[in-house]
Amino acid sequence: MSSSDRKRQEKAWRAEIWEAAQTQMKQIRIEKTIIKRAYMRADQDAKRQGEEIKKGTKEKSQGLGKRKKADHKKELTPAQKRDLDRRRELALTCIDRLKRIYPDTRTTLTFADAWQLLISLRLAAQCTDKRVDQVTPGLYAVYPTVEAISQAPVEAIEKIVHPCGLGPSKARDIKACMTMLHEVYQDRVPDTMEELLRLPGVGRKSANLILGDVFGKPAVVTDTHCIRLSNRIGLVTDIKEPAKVEKELWKVLPDAEANQFCHRLVDHGRAVCMARSPRCEACILNDVCAFGQTVLTAEK
């Protein structure tokens, strides 16, 4: 090879290397932008929920006895006090009965570490737990640590989690969440509501589940089953918003029972109190449930 040919070849190689480097830098800039935007969304969400977070944290730290005192300070009317006492008594009855048929209950999602549960909860949005458990092993086989996922390309994550639906947004949130865990919390999942809500893709429902199932703290997980059954039973009245249902349930549930009770509502909602065809005649709560009493009375 002549000297001029070698120079041309070296020039072509340098051009290829430069182009590859530019492409890589562009990809890094895109991923940094995605993560930055996810952080901004998380901060905005945290600010919007600021007042609710403060109220929820205060109520959880007080315990049931102190919540009663707080209710008295609000100067409840006699009718409101009677309704609150009725709902608290109803809650204790439901807790006792559901314990009998669902003694050992927990989330159906499979996880070995808290960060894996965070990922599973994000994937579970508009997806079944069964499908999530089928997808996550493949993700962890390729990216087995928080750091590995934080460094993975969003497109690679999306390709794996695509079967769970909403692949692009879920992949972005998962990468941003793991990046924040790695860079801010040294791969440790925080154990407070405020910090959990700062993580991209984490809402109050997921944060409560982490607090209850991972850290053993009082928690109220208001998923669709919990909201449906709480309204049917009469623990809340015509409230559909998760945050409002959570707030009302904190008033009537003992701290020590709250997390497990919400899991038992999920179990009962799947086995007996289904959305479309509830089996009121076979329900252990049918004599205290407002909806069940209406249905059984109408059938007579």
From TrEMBL:
It is an enzyme of class 4 (lyase). Residues 42-82 are annotated as: Disordered. The keyword Oxidoreductase does not apply. GO terms for molecular function: 4 iron, 4 sulfur cluster binding; class I DNA-(apurinic or apyrimidinic site) endonuclease activity; DNA binding; DNA N-glycosylase activity; metal ion binding. Residues 123-271 form the HhH-GPD domain. The keyword Lyase applies. PROSITE patterns: ENDONUCLEASE_III_1. One of its GO terms (biological process) is base-excision repair, AP site formation. It comes from the Bacteria. Keywords: 4Fe-4S, DNA damage, DNA repair, DNA-binding, Endonuclease, Glycosidase, Hydrolase, Iron, Iron-sulfur, Lyase, Metal-binding, Nuclease. It catalyses: 2'-deoxyribonucleotide-(2'-deoxyribose 5'-phosphate)-2'-deoxyribonucleotide-DNA = a 3'-end 2'-deoxyribonucleotide-(2,3-dehydro-2,3-deoxyribose 5'-phosphate)-DNA + a 5'-end 5'-phospho-2'-deoxyribonucleoside-DNA + H(+). Its cofactor is [4Fe-4S] cluster. [4Fe-4S] cluster binds at C273, C280, C283, C289. Binds 1 [4Fe-4S] cluster. Its EC number is 4.2.99.18. Residues 42-61, 72-82 have a biased composition (Basic and acidic residues). DNA repair enzyme that has both DNA N-glycosylase activity and AP-lyase activity. The DNA N-glycosylase activity releases various damaged pyrimidines from DNA by cleaving the N-glycosidic bond, leaving an AP (apurinic/apyrimidinic) site. The AP-lyase activity cleaves the phosphodiester bond 3' to the AP site by a beta-elimination, leaving a 3'-terminal unsaturated sugar and a product with a terminal 5'-phosphate. Belongs to the Nth/MutY family. This is Endonuclease III. It comes from Shuttleworthella satelles DSM 14600. The gene is nth.
